[in-house]
Write a structure and sequence with these properties.
About 50% of the residues lie in helices and about 0% in strands. The chain is mainly α.
């Protein structure tokens, strides 16, 4: 097994979020599906939205989170 495949096989953000409880966001999975986020991307998009909402309280608005969700989903592979 190559070393790079071993390194890229792990979640690089696992330790960043270990033991931390992010606040719930005002966006549901149905809202993400409505704006066109694929089902395979929704867990990661929700994780990023929760991290952003906990880092900056001004980003907790529903409209702002939906706009951010579109950009996050576009960046994910």
């Amino acid at each position: 097994m190559k070393r790079s495949s071993l390194i890229y096989g792990f979640n690089p953000y696992a330790l960043r979020s270990a033991g931390r409880q992010d606040p719930p966001v005002a966006v549901s999975l149905r809202d993400l599906a409505r704006i066109g986020v694929p089902a395979r991307k929704t867990p990661r998009v929700m994780q990023e939205l929760m991290a952003l909402a906990s880092a900056d309280p001004s980003l907790r608005g529903r409209d702002t989170l939906l706009k951010l969700a579109r950009h996050i989903a576009a960046q994910l592979l």
